[in-house]
C-alpha cells in the first residue's frame, strides 16, 4: 500500500504543479473549466481517470448510518437527512473530477463558456437530460432552482445567490449567469448547484416539505422505499438519461443501495460483523488493527482496503463557541488547548498511530509554513497587524506533551494563561473576580463513543485546573438543532477541506456566517482579517497568489485557537464485502461518497 500511496502523491504533485503555472482558461466554449489553467482531460475523454469505464452493473449493498432521519430533502435547513442523498439522487450542470484540485466537467450541461474576467458564465444544457419522472431538464428548471435554493434552501446556497446579478435564458437550451462580485470561483460554483424540478415545487412550501415529499432529481438513483428513522432504499434508475456521458461512464454501478440506521456506532459495527452491512469506514487506526479479526475477515468474505489521499487534513476536534464567555478570550482557549493531553489520549485510543492535525490545511501544499510569516503572507496580514492574536505573524504551533498522564507542563501553562485572563483557583475551583466558577458543557451525540472516550479523558484533566466540565449527550436531531442555533459551549467539530478552498470558506468562518444560524461557523469566528484573506483567495489571478492567501488564512484560523485538534486521517480505511470491487487507479482526493460507492461495482464471483 505504501507504493500506491507514493504513486498517488507523485500524481498529486504533478497535477498541482501543472496548474500552478498554467494561464487563465480561454473564453471560448469548453467541455470543462478549471479554477486556474485548463482541464486535464481532453474534450473527447471517455471516462474519469479513476473509473473503470466498463464496470459491470448489478448487485445490492447495504450501508449503515448512526442516528435517524426525519426528512428526505437534503436541500433545506429543516430536519435531519441521510447525508448520502444529495450525492446520488440529484445532479448539477457540472461535476467535479476528484483527481484535479478544482476542475469541472459537463453533466447536465454539455458545454460552458466564460470570459477572461469570469464576470459571467454561460451553460448549454444537454437536450437528452431528464428528471427521474421522464420530464426534460429545461432552462426554466435551472433558473427556478437557483432562485428557490437561494431564497428558501439551506444557508450553504445563500452566498452564491447574493453574488448573482441576473440569470437569463439566451437560447432554447442555454442560459447566462452574470455576477455582481469579482470572484473567479463563482463560475465554477454556479455549475455545482443541484437542479430541481420546477413542476414539483412551484407554489409549494419547499422549506417545510413533509417527509413523504422526496425531491425529484435527475441523478442515477431514486428513493424507492423508506421507513422513517430506520432505512432508505435507493434504486438505480434503469432509464437514467446520463449513463453513457463521459463523466458518468463506469459509475453508479450497484442496482440497489440500502441505508440502514442504527442507534450507535457499536451496534452498527456488530451488524457489519454479522453480515448485515456491506461496508464500513473506520477512522480509528488502533481499532482497525485490533478489532477487524472476526471470522468473515479470516474467511476472506470481508476485505480491509486502505485508500491514501493527498488532500488537506481539515480540522477535527472540540470547537469552542466564542460567542459566549469564557471562550471569547483567546487566552482561555489556549489554556483549553494546553490542558488537552493529546499524546496520552492519542496513544490510549489509537495506539499513537495517527499524527496530530497541525493546521487546517496540514498534509497539503496549502498549509502555512512554520515560523514567522514569509513576506508575501506577512504583506497580506499587515493591514490587520494591530488586531492579530499572538502567534499569527510570529508562528504558532499546538503544544506537544511528554505523553505522561499528568501533563504537568501543559497544566502549568494553562494555569498561567487562566490567571492572566482573570481566573484564580480558590479552594480547588477556578473562579473569576466575581467568584463565579468556570464551568461548561461538552455537547456530544449519543452515538459517538470515540468522542465520548476523548471527552472523558479531557474532563479529568480539566478537573485538575479546578474547571468543572460536564458531558451532555443528545440524539442526532437535537444535536443538529442545537448546533444550528449555536446553543453549546464546546462540541465536536469536523470540517473537511479541499485542495481548492473557495466561497465555502465564508460559510465556514466568515463574519457574516458567525451570526447566521445553520451556518458551519460553529466557533463564531468574526474577524475582518479572515474575511479579507477569503476575499484575497477568491480574487487571486494566479495560483501563487491563491496559495499565499490560503496560507495566510490557515495562520489566522490556527492561531485563533478556535478548535482543540485531534488526529489526522491521512489514509481512508474501508472494510467491505469481498464482492465489492474498486479500480486500481485511485483519485488524488482518495475516499469519499464520490469514490465509495460511486465508482465501485459488484462481482459475485
What does this structure look like?
- With 605 residues, the chain is an alpha+beta fold.
- Helix content is 29%, strand content 20%.
- The protein contains 19 helices and 23 strands.
- The strands form seven sheets. A five-stranded mixed beta sheet has the order 18-17-19-14-20. The chain has a four-stranded mixed beta sheet with strand order 2-11-10-9.
- The longest helix has 19 residues, at 2-20.
- The radius of gyration is 24 Å and the shape is globular.
List the keywords.
disordered N terminus; 19 helices; 20% strand; single chain; 4-stranded mixed β-sheet; 605 residues; alpha+beta; 5-stranded mixed β-sheet
Number of alpha- plus pi-helical segments: 19
What's the helical proportion of residues? 25-40%
Specify the oligomeric state.
single chain
Number of DSSP strands? 23
- Strand content is 15-25%
- Biggest sheet architecture: 5 strands, mixed
The order of strands across the largest sheet is 18-17-19-14-20
Q: Unreliable runs, pLDDT <50, ≥5 residues?
A: 1-10, 12-26
3D shape = globular
Mean pLDDT: 92
How is this fold's topology laid out?
Blueprint: H1 2-20, E1 32-34, E2 60-66, H2 85-88, E3 94-96, E4 103-106, E5 109-113, E6 120-125, H3 139-152, H4 158-162, E7 164-171, E8 174-179, H5 186-190, H6 198-201, E9 221-227, E10 231-236, E11 256-262, H7 265-273, E12 279-281, H8 285-290, H9 295-299, E13 302-308, E14 315-320, H10 330-339, H11 342-350, H12 375-381, H13 408-420, E15 424-426, E16 429-431, E17 439-445, H14 449-463, E18 468-474, H15 476-484, E19 490-495, H16 504-509, H17 511-514, H18 528-539, H19 543-559, E20 563-565, E21 571-577, E22 580-581, E23 601-602
Parallel strand pairs: 2-11, 17-18, 17-19
Antiparallel strand pairs: 1-4, 3-4, 5-6, 6-8, 7-8, 9-10, 10-11, 12-21, 13-21, 14-19, 14-20, 15-16, 22-23
Amino acid at each position: 500500500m505504501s507504493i500506491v500511496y507514493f504513486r498517488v502523491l507523485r500524481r498529486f504533485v504533478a497535477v498541482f504543479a501543472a496548474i500552478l503555472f498554467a494561464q487563465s482558461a480561454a473564453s471560448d466554449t469548453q467541455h470543462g473549466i478549471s479554477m486556474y489553467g485548463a482541464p486535464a482531460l481532453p474534450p473527447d475523454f471517455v471516462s474519469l481517470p479513476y473509473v473503470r469505464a466498463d464496470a459491470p452493473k448489478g448487485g445490492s449493498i447495504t450501508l449503515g448510518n448512526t442516528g435517524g432521519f426525519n426528512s428526505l430533502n437534503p436541500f433545506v435547513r429543516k430536519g435531519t437527512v441521510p447525508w448520502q442523498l444529495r450525492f446520488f439522487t440529484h445532479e448539477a450542470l457540472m461535476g467535479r473530477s476528484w483527481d484535479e484540485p478544482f476542475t469541472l466537467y459537463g453533466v447536465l450541461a454539455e458545454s460552458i463558456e466564460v470570459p477572461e474576467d469570469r464576470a459571467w458564465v454561460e451553460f448549454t444544457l444537454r437536450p437528452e437530460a431528464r428528471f427521474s419522472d421522464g420530464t426534460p431538464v429545461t432552462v426554466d428548471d435551472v433558473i427556478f432552482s437557483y432562485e428557490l435554493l437561494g431564497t428558501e434552501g439551506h444557508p450553504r446556497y445563500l452566498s452564491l445567490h447574493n453574488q448573482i446579478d441576473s440569470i437569463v435564458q439566451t437560447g432554447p437550451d442555454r442560459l447566462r449567469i452574470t455576477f455582481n462580485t469579482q470572484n473567479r470561483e463563482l463560475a465554477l460554483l454556479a455549475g455545482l448547484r443541484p437542479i430541481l424540478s420546477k413542476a414539483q415545487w412551484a407554489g409549494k412550501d419547499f422549506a417545510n416539505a413533509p417527509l413523504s415529499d422526496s425531491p425529484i432529481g435527475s441523478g442515477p438513483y431514486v428513493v424507492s422505499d423508506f421507513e422513517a428513522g430506520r432505512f432508505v432504499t435507493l434504486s438505480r434508475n434503469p432509464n437514467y438519461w446520463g449513463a453513457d456521458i463521459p463523466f458518468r461512464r463506469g459509475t453508479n454501478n450497484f442496482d440497489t443501495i440500502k441505508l440502514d440506521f442504527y442507534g450507535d456506532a457499536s451496534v452498527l459495527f456488530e451488524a457489519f460483523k454479522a453480515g448485515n452491512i456491506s461496508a464500513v469506514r473506520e477512522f480509528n487506526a488502533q481499532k482497525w488493527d485490533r478489532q477487524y479479526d472476526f471470522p468473515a475477515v479470516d474467511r476472506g468474505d470481508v476485505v480491509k482496503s486502505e485508500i491514501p489521499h493527498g488532500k488537506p487534513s481539515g480540522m477535527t476536534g472540540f470547537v469552542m463557541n466564542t460567542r459566549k464567555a469564557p471562550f471569547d478570550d483567546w487566552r482561555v482557549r489556549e489554556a483549553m488547548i494546553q490542558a488537552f493531553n493529546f499524546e496520552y489520549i492519542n496513544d490510549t485510543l489509537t495506539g499513537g498511530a495517527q499524527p496530530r492535525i497541525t493546521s487546517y490545511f496540514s498534509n497539503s501544499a496549502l498549509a502555512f509554513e512554520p515560523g514567522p510569516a514569509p513576506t508575501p503572507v506577512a504583506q497580506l496580514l499587515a493591514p490587520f497587524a494591530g488586531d492579530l492574536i499572538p502567534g499569527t505573524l510570529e508562528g504558532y504551533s499546538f503544544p506537544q506533551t511528554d505523553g505522561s498522564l499528568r501533563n504537568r507542563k501543559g497544566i502549568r501553562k494553562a494555569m498561567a494563561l487562566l490567571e492572566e485572563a482573570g481566573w484564580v483557583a480558590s479552594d480547588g475551583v477556578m473562579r473569576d473576580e466575581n467568584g463565579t466558577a468556570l464551568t461548561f458543557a461538552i455537547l456530544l451525540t449519543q452515538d459517538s463513543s470515540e468522542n465520548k472516550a476523548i471527552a472523558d479523558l479531557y474532563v479529568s484533566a480539566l478537573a485538575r485546573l479546578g474547571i468543572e466540565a460536564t458531558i451532555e449527550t443528545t440524539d442526532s436531531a437535537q444535536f443538529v438543532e442545537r448546533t444550528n442555533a449555536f446553543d453549546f459551549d464546546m462540541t465536536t467539530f469536523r470540517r473537511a477541506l479541499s485542495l481548492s478552498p473557495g466561497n465555502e470558506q465564508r460559510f465556514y468562518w466568515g463574519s457574516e456566517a458567525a451570526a447566521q444560524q445553520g451556518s458551519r461557523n460553529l466557533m463564531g469566528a468574526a474577524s475582518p482579517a479572515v474575511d479579507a484573506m477569503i476575499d484575497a483567495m477568491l480574487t487571486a489571478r494566479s495560483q501563487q497568489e491563491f496559495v499565499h492567501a490560503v496560507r495566510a488564512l490557515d495562520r489566522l484560523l490556527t492561531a485563533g485557537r478556535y478548535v482543540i485538534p485531534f488526529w489526522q486521517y491521512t489514509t481512508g480505511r474501508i472494510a467491505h464485502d469481498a464482492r465489492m470491487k474498486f479500480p486500481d487507479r485511485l483519485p488524488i482526493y482518495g475516499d469519499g461518497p464520490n469514490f465509495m460507492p460511486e465508482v465501485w461495482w459488484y462481482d459475485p464471483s
